[in-house]
Amino acid sequence: MKMSDINQINVVKIGGNVIDNPDALERFVSDFAKLPAPKILIHGGGKLATRLSEKLEIPTQMIDGRRVTDRDTLDVVTMVYAGLVNKQIVAKLQAAGCNAIGLSGADANVIPALRRSPIPVDFGFVGDIDSGKINTAFIATLLKAGVTPVFCAITHDTEGSLLNSNADSVASAVAVASATIAPTYMHFCFEKLGVMCNIDDESSVIKEIIPDSYRELREAGVVNKGMIPKIDNAFRAVEAGVQSVTIKHSDNLLSDIGTVIKL
User: Fold this and answer.
1) Alpha-carbon distance 134 to 145, whole Å?
2) Number of structural domains, the chain?
3) 190 neighbors 44 (Cβ within 8 angstroms)
4) Which of 41, 86, 123, 192 has a CA 20 to 30 Å removed from the CA of 17?
5) pLDDT tens figures, 65-74
6) CA–CA dist 37, 93 (Å, integer)
7) The domain spanning residue 53 has which CATH number?
8) Taking a C-beta distance cutoff of 8 angstroms, is the pair 163, 186 a contact?
9) Per-residue pLDDT averaged across 44-62, rounded?
10) What domain range includes position 200?
């Protein structure tokens, strides 16, 4: 595959609720393998890191719903995210006929990050990503070779330290970088059908959100809490060159059901 042969790239991110559900993960892997290449998968870690921390008697500290990554916790999330979870997903993809390679951000210096400032809150070894520093040439080389990269949320500071990054942010940064290779579409796959007007009514999925309607939805309280940073991330991605971002259920990867975020 030549660079000119890459007409479209799909960047897909799966949430921890999919990883924590073996049946949901099997269904997703089967569908992802059917998604036309070139494509990229990004995953979080689910609850396994928390369970392992408990077994090792390492306290889990959260601030405003975000994990504080001290040195011991960094070891745990690296083992789980970059090790067990990443390689299990890659093995399942190989079984489904998708030739994949599992990577952390440190591999081939593909996703360097900057350790977040301890002011005003010290989250420890947490990394923020600049999409402009992603090793786009390496990603293009893999895609041209017919290999699907599978990224976990472990990045590095280029000075020898690994960092724990937000998986949604990794997905957005990778999608923005991929958009310099070819038109790129991003998909956030989790346990909901999309952004809904009524969380208890599955038929109330909002099909499309643009900046004006987003402001109205926030003011009305329809979009709130954890969905706000996800949509904010999506808008930053489309403003930086991604064609569109779709928020959908992991079972609907190959369907049109979901919420499309675009300008």
Assistant:
1) 19
2) 1
3) no
4) 123
5) 778 999 999 9
6) 13
7) 3.40.1160.10
8) no
9) 90
10) 3-261
